[in-house]
């Protein structure tokens, strides 16, 4: 049954992507690490590209402490049966060259140690399947890339359209559990079924390898020393939403880029009545639109990433009337709506361990260009001093605090990013602090409308 469902899923994904099954994926241990070149060599001529990639999560895909802790636990609890599976995307060169497993090999070569690196990426000629690291990698003198007229004294160059398409990223950014067949990361799939693939033809590269966070933006320059000036060369910082691990690793620039990206990802609208009498029941409508991400919001490590709203309603004396989405003393989100996917293990219990997952309990993440609407009800108390202040924030973090405490024993506080905020008043105007308040609320909606209108053009 399970094998059949995986087969059906893969067939479906091939059909979506129009990928023709060519070469089979490169098997573990069939190459040598000496077939690959370290990035320090590429750096000689591609210094700007290298400096962009160096602080990225691709560069850190292997030494990422969050990954390392989960990998250890996954390996222990599955008796090593997932070692090749996990490492295939996180440290590809070590897998194809047979250095990992074991996962704690102390003698990893320089070429493998670099996570998802230059020479690995530019030696992938084709992929046999979307997802689960279905790459066919053929390291050689030839580097594949987006140019059809590129010349270098060091290597041969060959144009490959594959590098300009989302299917390339889909090799690793789509994960299906090898045993249960549950989709654990649907970044590619959500993109391929959404408006960016179908109507707008916006690829992963347009948002993640150009200065434009939500659309293509040209980046004129030279791709290497001595190379001709071109209208566009790609940006290799691969900024995502990882504010937590970039912070631990002190990659400040990449951390800032992740914050900026999260703040471009969504729009928040709050509608509230102008007036309400004591004793009256009030409904506040909060709408969250995935206006900037080409896939679900959140995406990626979906059993962990959390986005939620915090709604605080107080009277003008600061007396609390209604509050939701706050943290308790252990850092858990109290009584708020969290946008994420919740999975269960074989016993039907919720689990954060991706290797244990056998089913999806719920998934309320917001699809690209879609809107989720929440309604918050409260009763205006007798004696509330006007105006009543409604403060709404859209928040994000890379993982629940409980998971990080379990892995790191209380060493880290998971940072929370404020993606958007809106403040408004009932029975009077409210001063905003930097963010649009009641007075400028109509203005905000007007701005959003202009923004959405511009996006469509
Ligand atoms: C995750 C895979 C990946 C990694 C890692 C990677 N690249 Fe790229 N690279 C690409 C893709 C995909 C493109 C084409 C993007 C496009 O045109 O839309 C590209 C484009 C290029 C180009 C063509 C010029 C340009 O900038 O568009 C050069 C040169 C290049 N990469 C060099 C490097 C070097 C050097 C490194 C290591 C520091 C590196 N790449 C790391 C995937 C990767
Ligand atoms: C001696 C200098 C030099 C070294 C070393 C070097 N390159 Fe290049 N590379 C260039 C130049 C110059 C270009 C041409 C850029 C252009 O056409 O705009 C280029 C182009 C490329 C392209 C674009 C190919 C295409 O057709 O789209 C890729 C990809 C690439 N290099 C990857 C690498 C990788 C990976 C390494 C390290 C293994 C590396 N390069 C090492 C000089 C170098
Ligand atoms: C060989 C597998 C592989 C390929 C191909 C690949 N990635 Fe990744 N990517 C990874 C892994 C593994 C990570 C996560 C590393 C970590 O967080 O430990 C990652 C992380 C990222 C992140 C950072 C996410 C965050 O949390 O901030 C972005 C953005 C990203 N990739 C975009 C791309 C794009 C765009 C492409 C295609 C041009 C691509 N990747 C191709 C394996 C890959
Ligand atoms: C229209 C622009 C756009 C497109 C297209 C797009 N992304 Fe994103 N991506 C974003 C934004 C904005 C975020 C930050 C919000 C979030 O995490 O969803 C993001 C976040 C991510 C992250 C970080 C998730 C995490 O957990 O930290 C990864 C990985 C990623 N994208 C990969 C991809 C891949 C792979 C594709 C193509 C299949 C793609 N993106 C297409 C805009 C885009
Ligand atoms: C098909 C490729 C693939 C496989 C297989 C894979 N991963 Fe990943 N992993 C990724 C990508 C891509 C990301 C980045 C997604 C994102 O940013 O949310 C990632 C992110 C992670 C993260 C989050 C890191 C961070 O800094 O936030 C952890 C932890 C992780 N993976 C652990 C594992 C473990 C454990 C396994 C094996 C059970 C595994 N992965 C198998 C591709 C893969």
Automatic annotation (TrEMBL):
Ranges of residues in domain Cytochrome c-552/4: 41-123
Protein name from the UniProt record: Cytochrome c family protein
Alphabetized InterPro entries for the sequence: Cyt_c-552/4, Multihaem_cyt_sf, PGF_CTERM
SUPFAM superfamilies attached to this UniProt entry: Multiheme cytochromes
PGF-CTERM archaeal protein-sorting signal domain location: 435-456
Highest rank taxon of the organism: Archaea
Keywords: Membrane, Signal, Transmembrane, Transmembrane helix
Transmembrane segments: 436-453
Xref: Pfam families: Cytochrome_C554, PGF-CTERM
């Amino acid at each position: 049954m399970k094998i059949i469902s995986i087969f059906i899923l893969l067939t479906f994904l091939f059909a979506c992507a129009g990928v023709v099954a060519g070469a089979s994926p490169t098997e573990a241990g069939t190459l040598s690490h000496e077939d690959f070149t370290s990035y320090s060599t590429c750096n000689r001529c591609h210094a700007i590209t290298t400096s962009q990639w160096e602080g990225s999560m691709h560069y850190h895909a292997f030494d990422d402490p969050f990954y390392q802790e989960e990998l250890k636990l996954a390996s222990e609890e599955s008796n090593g049966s997932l070692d090749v599976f996990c490492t295939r995307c996180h440290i590809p060169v070590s897998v194809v060259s047979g250095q990992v497993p074991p996962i704690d090999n102390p003698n990893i070569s320089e070429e493998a140690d670099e996570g998802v690196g230059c020479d690995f990426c530019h030696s992938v000629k084709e992929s046999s399947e979307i997802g689960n690291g279905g790459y066919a990698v053929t390291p050689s003198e030839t580097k594949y890339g987006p140019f059809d007229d590129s010349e270098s004294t060091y290597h041969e160059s060959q144009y490959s359209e594959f590098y300009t398409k989302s299917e390339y990223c889909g090799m690793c950014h789509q994960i299906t559990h090898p045993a249960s067949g549950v989709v654990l990361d649907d970044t590619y799939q959500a993109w391929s079924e959404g408006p960016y693939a179908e109507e707008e033809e916006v690829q992963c590269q347009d948002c993640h390898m150009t200065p434009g966070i939500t659309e293509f933006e040209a980046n004129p320059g030279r791709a290497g020393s001595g190379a001709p000036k071109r209208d566009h060369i790609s940006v290799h910082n691969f900024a995502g939403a990882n504010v937590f691990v970039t912070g631990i690793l002190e990659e400040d620039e990449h951390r800032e880029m992740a914050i900026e990206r999260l703040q471009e990802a969504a729009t928040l609208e709050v509608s509230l009545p102008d007036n309400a009498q004591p004793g009256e029941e009030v409904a506040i409508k909060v709408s969250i639109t995935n206006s900037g991400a080409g896939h679900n919001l959140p995406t990626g490590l979906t059993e962990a990433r959390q986005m939620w709203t915090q709604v605080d309603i107080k009277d003008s004396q600061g007396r609390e009337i209604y509050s939701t989405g706050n943290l308790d003393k252990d850092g858990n989100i109290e009584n708020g709506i969290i946008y994420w996917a919740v999975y269960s293990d074989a016993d039907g219990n919720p689990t954060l361990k991706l290797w244990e997952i056998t089913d999806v309990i719920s998934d309320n993440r917001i699809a690209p260009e879609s809107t989720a609407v929440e309604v918050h009800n409260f009763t205006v108390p007798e004696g509330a001093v006007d105006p009543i202040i409604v403060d709404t924030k859209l928040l994000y973090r890379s993982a629940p605090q409980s998971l990080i405490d379990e892995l790191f024993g209380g060493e880290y506080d998971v940072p929370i990013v404020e993606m958007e905020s809106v403040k408004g008043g009932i029975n009077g105007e409210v001063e905003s602090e930097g963010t649009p308040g009641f007075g400028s609320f109509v203005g905000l909606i007007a701005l959003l409308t202009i923004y959405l209108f511009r996006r469509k053009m």
